[in-house]
Task: structure prediction
Amino acid sequence: MGDVMKKVLVYSGHLCGYCTLAKKLLEKKKVDFEEINIHDNPNKIEEMMRFSQGKRTVPQILVGDIYIGGFEDLYSMDNQGLLDKILKEEGIV
Result:
């Protein structure tokens, strides 16, 4: 089977300013991520809600196996230096 590359998932939606900010922050850190737009892929809403403890708002961000939350959570973790630590621990960077 081989190693499955862990990745960063960003669940987003249309006209979502916080989604744009989250993606810009990840791009600035040179982190590759997969974006899933739940408006274009409504079948992914259940999947998103499973790891987000039922949250329906976007963005919802997952780094490897670790649930981050929304943009404000991502931004706060980045400011505290926790995001870099998680990215390293999860083998993303």
The chain has one domain: 8-89. Residues 8-89 form a domain with the Glutaredoxin fold (CATH 3.40.30.10). The longest helix spans residues 17-28. DSSP finds four helices and four strands in the chain.
